[in-house]
Design a protein that fits this description.
Chain lengths: 415, 322
């Protein structure tokens, strides 16, 4: 008895001493169904390379919106994590409010930062006022997912390249007995596909601090959506239910972010899955919004050790083997040259489905943030508006556009 | 006063003051806690409802009753009121009725009482959020249990006699959670399923308080049928229980949130058809950090609940004492 007590006491002091040497970095990320596997795959290598740093994972954010909102709340209550993953279009507000720190001091200390695969095009996604505030971790683009068995069954042998061809494919599939030909992911983060249709026409949804929902391009986007939803008789599925249906082989075509490819492939039923480029409105898209997230430093710790450890972690996950895991486990592309060209050299040859998004990279445009404090509320207005098209509640697109413009104007800082 | 009071004034005042001090110091902790935990937050919400405060900002502007104007003029909030009242008006009567029915049936049983009680009470004990996730799987439009069960009826005689089945078999069964015609009723159904067991237990407790002699007396007075006995004895005797059950059900119905958050984390259902008040408070105040408008909805919510409680007090004091 006495012996065990002594042993326990010894073990306790030992682990206490051990814990003192370790620096703890608190970290939080969104979309556990996509990224859990990624971080699990990264951790062994990180622990081996940096045994003195312990990564403490906080509860995951349900979505980018939830992530931003959680950080804003945590900054008020004073318990920010050291590193957080934020949606590319949600970085701005954290920079404006001074929650995310500039990474310039850390980058200056790095001898060969560019050699590690960080290049300007990628850093520009997280650069605000000449200062890098985040390191992009994963970049995605919208793509088409096709169930080739259903397409072949309906006698379609070519992937559609325009929305008109998509609608024609829908009608062919309906005629041959597919009840659920399409899922068009309008509800992905509430505004991303709206921006996708706007960028397709080379129009930015936010231009010089003005939201361009009143432009003819915005109307064209809404009308395009209406045409797809009504002519394809698309069901209003919640996105998790839609992904489940597609994986079960019930949906012919799904338009969604390439990011879900890993998750879909893991739960895929018995059918041939192919991805294809995102169709355009009449012609090939002129641009597409970059989805994805970036790692931001939000540590409030004064301890240089913690800051340094947080930077180490941040760098590890966005470069080299860490970044390569992103491509291997999800459908995201690591926005890192070294990871893409060296470590993943034959990866894309072996995984042609993941190649689609890479091919679309020249179209990459910013996923724009809405100005002011009410970015999340503006996203909700767009979400609600599109939902009314899906459910058939709104039939006159001009009227809907007008309502959305007015509601957004209320939420803008100068409105 | 001065004429009657002949004792030296000093002593009385002293004892009285002492007692007074003792009383105050004894109630002080409770009072302080009540003010700090219950009243103060309500006051803060009331004050914030007249501002445009957004979480994380340093300051805010006074905007008067603008938040309340919006509540009563915007179509979003009109949908909120419609959803909330549809839910309350549907769930309260049905869950109270089923609770009473189940209690009477169980009370009339000789054996298996406990088993039935436990079964009906199970959904109450389960976490609604966890149950909602289970329901979400069952309600999935193509691979969910509910639509697959309905599909088994295709090609049978049910299809011929029930138009709903006929259209379902031809064009596919409803997307329960994505169709604005069904969404609120699905939520209502789950609310009733989850809540009536609780009402049943309250009624069972109420039934134990009804004296046997009353039934015998009623029978002697000519109340022969079971319905007569229920109308003349059971129902009036359950009066106080009913008032309590209805009030509690109303307040619980106003508070519905878990199912909606689980089914539609973004947006409050198709076309906001299930955008109930609690969810609106959460969305505005917590998700979007718009504390001002969130507080305004909260204040309105408190007014509704307060109103219900006052009605209950009034009924208990005036109407249902025997």
């Amino acid at each position: 008895m006495k012996l065990t007590a002594t042993a326990m006491a010894l073990a306790l002091t030992a682990s206490a001493a051990f814990a003192q040497d370790k620096v703890t970095v608190e970290f939080a990320y969104p979309y556990s169904h996509l990224f859990d596997v990624t971080y699990e795959a990264m951790m062994p290598a990180f622990e081996k390379a940096h045994p003195d740093i312990e990564i403490k994972f906080r509860a995951t954010y349900e979505s980018y919106e939830d992530g931003t909102n959680t950080i804003l709340r945590e900054s008020v209550s004073g318990n920010l994590p050291d590193v957080t993953m934020q949606g590319l279009n949600r970085q701005q507000i954290l920079v404006d409010k001074g929650i995310a720190q500039s990474l310039e001091p850390f980058i200056e200390k790095e001898a060969d930062f560019a050699k590690e695969g960080y290049h300007d095009a990628m850093l520009s996604l997280s650069t605000f006022g000449d200062n890098v505030h985040g390191l992009p971790f994963s970049v995605s683009l919208p793509v088409g997912y096709y169930n080739m068995d259903i397409l072949a069954g309906a006698g379609i042998d070519k992937m559609p390249t325009t929305w008109d061809e998509v609608i024609a494919a829908c009608e062919t599939m309906k005629a041959s007995g597919t009840k659920n030909p399409i899922f068009w992911g309008w509800n992905i983060t509430g505004n991303w596909f709206m921006q996708a249709l706007m960028w397709s026409q080379d129009e930015a949804i936010v231009d010089n601090g003005r939201v361009t929902l009143d432009s003819p391009e915005a109307l064209a986007a809404l009308e395009q959506m209406q045409e797809i939803f009504t002519k394809c008789e698309m069901q209003n599925l919640e996105w998790k239910a839609a992904l489940a249906s597609f994986s079960a082989g019930e949906i012919g075509m799904m338009f969604w972010s390439t990011s879900a490819l890993g998750a879909v492939e893991r739960s895929q039923g018995e059918f041939v899955l192919k991805t294809g480029p995102f169709p355009g409105m009449g012609e090939t898209p002129k641009g597409l919004p970059a989805g994805g997230n970036a790692a931001m430093l939000t540590s409030t710790s004064d301890d240089p050790k913690v800051q340094e450890a947080a930077w180490t972690w941040l760098k590890f996950i966005t470069s080299g083997e860490g970044a390569a895991e992103v491509a291997k486990t999800t459908g995201y592309m690591p926005p890192n040259k070294a990871a893409n060209e060296v470590i993943l050299a034959d990866f894309y040859d072996q995984n042609p489905n993941k190649q689609t998004a890479v091919d679309q990279l020249p179209l990459l445009r910013d996923w724009l943030a809405y100005p002011g404090d009410n970015g999340l509320a503006i996203t909700q207005v767009i979400y609600d508006g599109i939902e009314r098209i899906v459910t058939g509640d709104a039939t006159d697109m001009k009227e809907l556009q007008q309502e959305m413009v007015e509601e957004v104007a209320d939420l803008l800082p100068n409105g | 006063m001065a004429v009657i009071d002949t004792t030296p004034p000093g002593i009385t005042n002293n004892t009285q003051a002492q007692e007074c001090r003792a009383a105050w110091s004894l109630t002080a902790p409770a009072l302080v806690l009540m003010v700090a935990i219950l009243l103060l937050p309500v006051m803060v919400a009331l004050v914030l409802s007249f501002t445009n405060y957004s979480l994380g900002n340093d300051g805010f502007d006074w905007i008067g009753t603008k938040n309340y104007d919006r509540l009563f003029s915007r179509s979003t909030y009109e949908k909120m009121f419609i959803a909330t009242f549809t839910y309350v008006v549907t769930v309260v009567p049905i869950s109270v009725g089923l609770g009473l029915g189940a209690a009477l049936l169980i009370n009339s049983l000789g054996r298996f009482r406990e088993i039935y009680k436990t079964i009906y009470f199970l959904p109450v004990m389960a976490t609604l959020l966890a149950m909602a996730i289970a329901w979400e799987f069952m309600l999935h439009p193509s691979i969910g249990m509910i639509n697959q069960t309905l599909e088994m009826g295709c090609g049978t005689v049910i299809e011929a006699i029930w138009p709903f089945m006929a259209t379902g078999c031809a064009d596919g069964f409803p997307v329960w959670l994505g169709d604005k015609r069904y969404a609120i009723w699905v939520v209502c159904f789950i609310g009733i399923w989850q809540g009536f067991g609780f009402n049943m237990v309250l009624y069972l407790a109420g039934l134990t308080g009804v004296h046997r002699e009353l039934y015998h007396a009623a029978e002697m007075d000519g109340a022969k049928s079971a319905w007569e006995r229920f109308r003349l004895v059971t129902w009036p005797a359950l009066g106080p229980t009913t008032v309590f059950v209805v009030t509690i059900s109303c307040i619980r119905a106003f508070q519905v949130f878990d199912t909606i958050e689980a089914f539609w984390p973004q947006g409050g259902g198709p076309n906001k058809s299930t955008y109930v008040m609690m969810f609106a408070i959460f969305e505005k105040g917590v998700q979007q950090n718009l504390i001002g408008i969130g507080s305004a909805i909260t204040v309105l919510f408190l007014i509704f609940v307060m109103f219900l409680t006052l009605i209950q007090r009034w009924l208990v004091e005036r109407k249902v004492h025997y």
